[in-house]
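Folds abound. A case:
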Amino acid sequence: MAVRIRLTRLGKKKKPFYRIVVQDSESARDGKFLEVVGSYDPMQEPALVDIKQDKLQAWLDRGAKPTDTVRSLIAKNSVVAE
């Protein structure tokens, strides 16, 4: 089972809000997830990114791989060194 750290979409039409979740790579985008490690709100100015550093680092240590989008959010906020 490959584990990925990726975004799952919430919110209304044209008002997106995302959770950063740890999920099996074969699950649907908005399907079952293992744990919520943060959130991302692109509608704020500037975009609001809230990441729980301890949970994120624990999953990275276990071998979870972030998607390109999540990796860029982590890099922009310089939360955890990968």
In short: The beta strands are 3-12, 15-24, 35-41, 48-51, 65-66. The mean pLDDT is 89. The two ends are 21 Å apart (CA to CA). Helices lie at 53-61, 68-77.
